[in-house]
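Researcher: Quick sanity check before group meeting.
Model: Go ahead. Protein one:
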Amino acid sequence: MARQLEEQIVARFPVGKRLRVLDVGMGRGAQALRLARAGHQVTGVEQDAASIAAVREAFAGEPEGIRERMRIIEGQAGDTGVHFLPGSFDVVLCHGVLMDDVEEPDALLAGVARMLAPGGMLSLLVRNGDAAAMRAGLSGDWAGALAAFCPPTASYGLKRLTSTLAGIGAPLHTWYGVRVFTDTAADDSVPPDDLDAVLAVEDRAGRTDPYRGVAALLHLCGVRG
């Protein structure tokens, strides 16, 4: 996903431009740190105290110039309008926020999109509602796979997301699949010796039909007109 995000930023913005980035639900700050290292001004919003502590610890070991480019706000993803004026950011990340049980997800996305300046980009990562049965089926959990064929009404597939992004003023520009072949790997798995090859295959599959359509996650990039 980091490769995909970098690809879109490089294609959309002038080389060397210091972007204003908002990372909504920043988690442990992997993307925020990478973008701050690249020279961008990054603001992260996170409500989990343990995640915030992890981000602060990660940034503590960085040079002062990088630390100065990072700001952390403790708050919920739906409260962006409380903290920022509309149009304040060139890039907004909303990664994994809608994977949990979120009330009024479309309203949350609309609030996040309002933070985009004209021409700004929204990077959205969600579970792929069109392929909800894949992980359980590939793991041999047949009961779970059958249940997944009837996903909750809040689940997002490509068609719904395309409509939602258009409705909130950030129409879909491009999309990728994430974790096409590796979704069944345990969270605590030791990285394989051929990790570069794995990443190369995932990167290729995530941008190639029909593989990206059955990925565990969808990464969509919408652009504010």
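Researcher: Fine. The other one?
Model: Protein two, sequence then structure:
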Amino acid sequence: MAIRVLLVDDQPLLRTGFRMILEAEQDIAVVGEAGDGLQALDQVRALQPDVVLMDIRMPRMDGVEATRQITGPDRDGPAKVLVLTTFDLDEYVVEALRAGASGFLLKDAPAGELVQAIRVVAAGEAMLAPSITRRLLDKYATHLPSGEEPVPNGLHTLTDREVEVLKLVARGLSNAEIAADLFVSETTVKTHVGHVLTKLGLRDRVQAAVYAYESGLVRPGAQ
């Protein structure tokens, strides 16, 4: 079945461009458009998309609040949110990730990267490109823990292997890349990621990545 995508952006020309790119793919179907966050909420309820391509700055309701409502506990469907951004709005991306977005993408990303991001998010993984994530976290390094703070209690519940997996998730690696790095199967990685989320009370791997940095387990710029 095709991945159902809702386009949310207050610029009609951008929505048209995204539609042209995505509709050229056999496994992706653009089911609707919205020009602001309020319209996005209505369209999500009516159309039940798999992925919402979400702009941040929009009139009436911005992309952060719309993301929070779409992915929150009272959500109406399985939609995942992929945020569109430019680097001068990085602080909004951090808030969108905390609100429940499954990742973020630059507005000027190549067409192939946009298509791949849609597929990754629809499959339940996070679109956290290491280069973009690192630049974001480096920029906000002064707001993150120094690494000298006490280790959060939750980390003590993880096995050594689960801590390794959490660090690699924070670097933006996919399950397949983590499996190759640790010389284990992808199924084993999925099991470890599931255990990490359950033990730390996190919703998804995006929250896990944010947790790893905010807890001081991983430092910005670290390899």
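Researcher: One line on it for the slide.
Model: Residues 179 and 186 are 5 Å apart (CA to CA).
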